[in-house]
Amino acid sequence: MAKVIENNPIKEYGLKVGSKSSNSFFEVLNPYDQSVVAKVGLANEALVQEALTLSQNCFVNKMSKSKAYERSRILIKTAGLLSQRSQELANIIALEGGKPINDAKMEVARAVNTFEIAARLILTDEGRQIPMDVSPLSDGRMAYLTYEPLGIVLAITPFNFPLNLVAHKLAPAIACGNTVILKPASQTPITALVLQEILIMAGLPENALIVLCLKGSDTNRLVESPKIKALTFTGSPSVGWNITKNVANGVKCIMELGGNAASIVHCDANIALAVQGLCKGAFSHAGQICISVQRIYVHQDIAVEFTKLFIDAVKQIKYGNPLDDSVEMGPMINSEACQNTALFINEAIKQGAKVLLQGEQKDHNIFTPTILTNTTSQMKVVCEEVFGPIVSINSYDSIDQAIAYVNDSNYGIQASIYTNSLDIAFNAIHNIDTTGVLVNDPPTFRSDHIPYGGRKDSGLGLEGVKYTMQEMVKVKYASFKM
Fold first, then answer.
1. What's the CATH number where 177 sits?
2. At what angle do helices 68-84 and 86-97 cross, to 10 degrees?
3. Distance separating alpha carbons of residues 95 and 108, to the nearest angstrom
4. Dihedral of CA 304/420/274/444: which sign?
């Protein structure tokens, strides 16, 4: 049951698309105390159709004709406005998403950088001449490539990074001259609405970005529209792969889906460094990150020492109100997420997993960390994405065995290894089947300019500003016979 904070008026974010408005609202709740953060307008089918029409018109008449320097200036100004409003945005992220305030501030800083990277790339991403003297059939010709925007990009984003994951979709799309219809997570729409306001203040044309809060069948109508030319989605594999079945023919799909990230701690590793990194990597945002550390494989020679130090470090994590500067782990997004976490743990225990540190659900949707061992690849806590504060630790006797454990997964976004040996590090880099392999860092580390995305069930296509921009254009080849 939602409650309203006394003497704190509830802000309403109405929804208007062109001449049409929504009279329907839903409440955004603080996951920590269930207070109402705001009321947000809920779109219907009429607003979906209006958004598609206006977005298409804006693309044809404005964005597709815009100049690179104009779009770059918009993105640079957006970065500056985000920086100016960083405290406000961090507070919103903490309130609606439950992310600890210090992590929320870091997310804002990363979003600033994401827009800055996109702004720079617009001005350096030039067309390319194609050498034609590689074939006798091409004699007497010259050729070059150009890049054209696609049209309307549909972006569907999750709750766990309500600003920077949105930025990773909007900045590249705008940089390339596309328009965007954004459907943010219903748990965290306010951050996206504020970002829309900032982009318009920065000079983005009206209707170049339309934010629609949607549910159910109205989302499906948007996904299925032939006016959509690209779909960029971050969320669960089951939802993501199902969406790809419903898009119109020819739609480019960039799918950033789930993971069960693993890390190897080899016998020559700096144990203190590994403990520190993996503790943070496993329990940041209560494990609600697709590259949260979920599986740790430790060489048998150091397994006892590492495990003891890791448990001691996890016991020191302070959890509580995400607005408290000293809090390192806040609530899960809702009570259902807590219940799912408990189900994962209980099922693993019934199947033979041993509990090293028992987590439990507390008030305010807090679920304290759980550490398991004696887990197998068939247990859901290992083979599925738990998206919660659970990590398993198991030992290995050879690096090849450890790499095999890491690869025994349907997912493949990022993995990591802690070692002081270059030979061991490169063995892992060459043989681990993930898009990213990090050495002496947790797999949770991400820099916003690097390629990011998953193999296998973890996704399709790449994020990372430059790589997303490559997905959001049409390549055109031109040839001249001299």
1. 3.40.605.10
2. 70
3. 14
4. negative
Residue 86 sits in the same domain as residue 201: yes
Same domain for 228 and 241, yes or no, is yes
The CATH number for 355's domain is: 3.40.309.10
Beta-strand (E) ranges in 117-190? 128-130, 141-149, 152-156, 179-183
Same-domain pairing of 275 and 151:
no
* Digit-coded pLDDT (tens) for 52-61: 999 999 999 9
Q: What is the pTM of this model?
A: 0.95
Q: What is the pLDDT of residues 350-397, one digit of tens each?
A: 999 999 999 999 999 999 999 999 999 999 999 999 999 999 999 999
- Which residues are known to be catalytic? 256, 290
Same domain, 251 and 324: no
* Cα separation, 150 vs 173, whole angstroms: 9
* CA end-to-end distance (rounded Å), the chain: 74
Q: Which pLDDT does position 4 carry in this prediction?
A: 36
Contacts of 137 (CB under 8 A, 6+ apart): none
Beta strands of 311-448 (E only): which ranges? 354-357, 370-373, 390-396, 411-412, 414-418, 436-439
The answer to whether residue 3 is domain-embedded is no
Q: What tokens were used for 473?
A: 């254009």
Q: Which residue has the tokens 């259902």?
A: 336
Among 249, 228, 247, which residue's Cα sits nearest to residue 178? 228
Contact between residue 249 and residue 275 where contact means Cβ atoms under 8 Å apart: no
Burial of 131 (0-12, 13-18, 19+ CB in 10 A): exposed
Alpha carbon separation from 451 to 168, 436, 455 (Å, rounded): 12, 8, 12
Q: Are 194 and 167 in contact (CB under 8 A)?
A: no
**Same structural domain for residues 343 and 422?**
yes
Q: Examine the domain organization and report whether 222 and 294 are in the same domain.
A: no
Segments of the chain with pLDDT less than 50: 1-8
Q: Residues 301, 247: one domain?
A: no
In a domain, 453, yes or no: no
pLDDT at 319: 95
pLDDT at residue 8 in the model: 47
Which residues span the domain enclosing 388? 262-447
Q: What is the dihedral of CA 192, 195, 196, 199, to 10 degrees?
A: -160
d(CA 461, CA 351): 36
Q: In whole angstroms, how far apart are CA 440 and each of 40, 102, 381? A: 43, 23, 24
Is residue 343 in a domain?
A: yes
* β-strands 370-373, 390-396 pairing: parallel
Question: Domain for residue 66, yes or no?
Answer: yes
